[in-house]
Amino acid sequence: MSRPVLNVGGAVRHLGREWTVAGIEGAMASGARIWLAGKDGDSSLAVFALAELLGDPGFGPVASPRLRVPQVGLLSTVREDQQQRALDLERHVREVETGYPAPGGKGPVKPQYDPASTTLAQREQAKADELTAQGWPRVSRATVRRWRARYHADGVWGLVAKRRGSTRLDRADALVVEALRALLPEEALRSRSRGWKKRMRRETQWWLDARHGERMVEVPAKSTFNKLLDAVEESLGLQGTVAQRRARAARPAPPFTPTVALRPGEIVMLDSSPLDVLVVLDDGVVGRLELTSAVDVAMRGLWGVLRPVGSKLTDVAVLLAQMMTPMMMRPGWDAALSMAASVVPHDRLSAVDERLKDAAARPVIVPETVVVDQGKVFVSAATRAACESLGISLQPVPPANGPAKGHVERPFGSINSLFCQWLPGYTGSNVSERGSKVEQEALWTVTELRELWEEFLVYWHHRPHAGLRHPLMPKKALTPNQMWAALLPVAGYVPVPLSADDFVELLPVRWQSITDAGIRFDYRTYDGSCLNGHRGQDSGVRAEKGLWEVHYNPYDPVRIWVRLPEGFREVAWIHTSSVALPFTHHVWEHICKVVERTGSREEHEAELALALDAFLRRAAGKEKLSSVERRVMAKSRASENVPVPAGEINVLDVLAPSFGLAGVYAAPDPDDETLLDEDGDADADVVGDGPEAGRHVSGGSLILSDQDLEEDQWLP
Fold this sequence. Notes:
By secondary structure, the chain is of the alpha+beta class. Helix content is about 35%, strand content about 15%.
């Protein structure tokens, strides 16, 4: 690299100012004196000793404009006349600053551009006068100064005349802009929740079709429409949300390590979130449901349970059962949703598992590893025990680490865009998107929404997913069903029968002592003859200080199950006969709050039972309830109670009503060869009238499939 040279006419910096070297007197070795003249109209002249200049840390030559390689790629985007004008301006700028139009010029320079005899301000004015004489319009010294600044900043590209032109709104189709301005005021007034741009594009097309005829006016392409929508929203003051900016700021820094799963069930991720839709719970009470969902990483399969916000721990049990059991086709569903009409090898699978005969096209998997967050419902002792009993590895992620389970976080947005935003009562994903009159829309009931949700789950597995690619077809996005069909020949399919004890294992667990009075918790006492011989005894479980393992169903508190040395035994609540109607934990918690204790523990429990029965009868009789009581009953009735019948546990009654199990049958009893058909009808003894009507009470042990028939038929 060459060293800087101090010569006459050169520009230097001293005392925080720029100077032009006007002269050098004396020899450098003996202490020369340097004459410096001011720049840019400054007529001052000063003389400094060389030693003084060298003592200034800021002293040094001012670098001449560095050479830039022409930005050929950028210049090729403009017209040839614009390119030529920019190159001409480059020569003029260099002539003003160095005296030569081109780098490395030799020979005499024009007197008006000689740096040795003129200041930079004089040269700028000379260039402005020259170009004005040549016919350039509106060129002044300030114009030349701006050209120099742009050239220093961006090179030749900075000298290209940028066309300001019209705005995006001016260039867009006036009819499309009119449609957006007609639709967006509804969001401006916040009477309806704001949705995705995809929904707005469709609604804009519908608006245009209704007023100008079918497809007479086409909305722009997706990317163009999204930019146009942003422009219209900005003009109306609706652009962006604080929540969106915060979400982007909270995103961890990349790169991210992808999670790889090569077979169905290898990695399953679970999470919960309130559903962004208002529903009618019961008796006109409006509320929201909570979605607990599971996503299989290998094929992006989706399962989900909807319950009122604040429900208890059985959602994990229901999800695990959903993944391991087929879904039965519902009346009214299109035949295209059946597994027989899908790409899945239905005939081969049906030969292995009869439950798949009339099943909907939704994958059936056995989870190997379940990834969850630190939510109470996921890291509870019940969840850990259930996963351990089924051979499932439970892996909680560190706190506040959403990307660790991004495969289940992302579908919540897809559920909003594909499902929630099309429903009445959509609340939006944040307050800024929520409508002020959402509660006044024609809301769906819980039953209606659950039925639609089950159909949506089947549709999900028919929808192409951008993250699913086959090695032989890398450019084609596969559906979850297609990926399942591709992985089945490699991973195989093993039917897993769930017995009665398996379902009990999935229920929440508590550790309690067995006293002479029985088992007490939540102001309820459970007792039965099966506890004799174990009262006051140690369970032998040292980790739990000798307490006994008790499983309970929050949606059916009238009985519990205790793990005794001989297996699970059902124990009933001692006041079951005093309560005529079923209830859930929502109702019991309300009764415990409103009934004040006035006597002993036994007397208080009896008073609670009588108050509970009276409350349930009033609610069933449609008597007028307070707003709090109405909300309690609404949550209770919307909890989709999964009852477990008294006596021997019947898994068909437990699972089939909620999970839509297809082809469920009972293993034959030696004395009773009756089998249940798909509608639950049979010639065996059934309970007569009432809610127990139609229930199978055969003496055979009930399972979801016959393992003896299957063990030689597993699909390789």
